[in-house]
Amino acid sequence: MADSDRTITIGNVLRADIRGFVVASRIPEPDVPTFGTFVRAAIQQERADLIGLVYNITLQDDPFLKNLAVTVIEDDPRYAEIIRDQQENRAVPVEIAVAAIGYRDEDNHYHYGLPPQPPMILHRITVCSKDEVRHITAAPDFMRALFDNRDVPADELIPTALQRAARLRPESSRGEFFLEAGRYLAHYLGRDPVRLERILRRLA
Amino acid sequence: MLHIERLKADIDTLSRLAVERQTQREDDVARALRWLAEAPDSTTLRERLAPVATGEHDWPGALPAVDVPLDARFTVRSDPPHGTVVIGVDGSQVYPDPHAAALYYLIQIGGLVFGYDGSRPRPYSCEALHFRDEELYDAQGYLISPERVGMERLVQEMAYLAELTAIEHRLAPAAPLLALTDGPLLWPYVERSRVDSQAVDAYLDALTEIQKTGGLPVGYVARPGGRALVELLWASRLAPEDIPGRLPENPLRQLPDAALMAHFLAPGERSAWFSRPSSTNRRHAGRGHEVWFCYVNVGAARMPVIARVEAPEWGAPNEDAITTLHAVLLHQSQVLNGYPYVLARAHEEALVTTADKAALDSEIQRHLFAQGILARPSEKAQQKAYLGKR
Fold it and tell me: Does A131 map to a domain?
């Protein structure tokens, strides 16, 4: 998803605070963002964009599927089209939780840490383009807001985000990217070697 | 707040009446089934009902459309033929709200193209925001009525169905093409004005387009009301000289056709075709689209689900097409316990949810604010919104 350069609007902000927000969405399964996807949402009357990382996806109850579940048989060719419709087309009701990592101001400068304002309710959120991901991850400070966010599985999210960002860089510069991130993590988590090791192992 | 405890006596009475009605209905059904079995042949009935067949008497009954016994029942044994394409279309709307921050109405049409060839069904949708004065107000300056919005939605649904049919016909010219709409095929509104007549014409134009591209338009009416067949059965009991004089005396006028069909049709069966001699159907006939209807039981044993299926006179007698339609409806309905999958999905594509509407209102308000206009819902609307959340 985030590796694609197309930007996809994935839903509306349902509730928000300064550390993140939750999006309600009904989108086809292939478009549901994955864990660690970089997304953005307009803030400050669309003068800036909050940048965040998807850290939880909750599939909501779907009465339509309950009906189908008792009649449709997976390997029966009589239901082939219906199964494809459900799997490839149908809007899945999901709640997507996003942790804020920074924001982009109206002059297109990126800032790390918590944004000045959460996105307003019902604003749309969009998957970041490759270019936007490269910019926000240009410095390892993008991880800073995650360390102290107790709602977020940061030890899983940080390695996933780093790997995702590394894949968008030329192979020759990926080593340096990881090295710089490792130095930053060591500096930040120097007093918590167990946690540091856990994150670094997931990066390996 | 609703004080349900104060309604207890009414609820008791309602339940008692329902039991009485149920008992009465069982008697009525038994009587109607006997009338159905004893009805004269179709030709005799049509001759007998000639005085009301012109549509001038506003008789709510049906006429036999084909030369088969009234109690004929049809079944299909096979699945839909490979390659059959079914297009389902449905619509939804947001009515104009004078208490909202901005005055508009919205129509959204959704569709699903379902090919019986293992391919991925294709969802479609389109939407239109109507906000100009000429769209919102009629010639007398009154705000557009919900009925008028309903007419527009119906026209747009049929036009969209025609558009999708044309696309599918280009992709697979030889494929059987069924164009399903949720609701009656017969125009359901009364023509009162020139604007209404224009809407009917546009609707009939769309039916013509579907016909030209080889599609069969079909109206699917779930849980149908109406007693056209029961009225025909009453007419079948009358002597020729009592028609039309005694037609209004039908003792079974509380019995809807669907209740009769639930006892008459076994799961999977459909009835014979009938037509209505109404002025609206004559209007359709004038453009070559007289509408016929039949009933089909898409339910299961001990759980009948009766639907009324409407098709144009130029397609309904086509045995191959109707056998395919019959097989498709059974397959589609079996998946969702009595309602065609393709229509359920079309509805889902068309639906404007409360959250969608709230997002649209918010977007409009933000754009107005950016233009320096502070638009807010009325105080009444805001209070209702707060209370509605309790």
Answer: yes
Residue A139 lies in a domain: yes
The pLDDT tens digits of the residues spanning B237-271 come to: 999 999 989 999 999 999 999 999 999 999 999 99
Q: What is the pLDDT confidence band of residue A154, given thresholds at 50, 70 and 90?
A: very high
End-to-end CA distance of chain B: 10
pLDDT band at B56; cut points 50, 70, 90: confident
Q: How many CB pairs under 8 A join A and B?
A: 58
pLDDT of residue B363: 85
- Residue found by looking up tokens 């080593």 in the block: A175
State which amino acid sits at residue A100: A
CB contact under 8 A, B359 and A88: no
Shortest Cα distance from A185 to chain B (angstroms)?
Answer: 40
Q: Rounded to a whole number, what is the distance in Å from the CA of A109 to chain B's nearest CA?
A: 23
Nearest CA in chain B to A70: B335
pTM: 0.81
- CA nearest A152: which of A110, A114, A203? A114
Q: Give me the residue from B120, B355, B358 closest to A89, CB to CB.
A: B120
Number of domains in chain A: 1
- pLDDT given at position A152: 92
Within-domain flag for A3: no
In angstroms, the CA B31 to CA B45 distance is 19
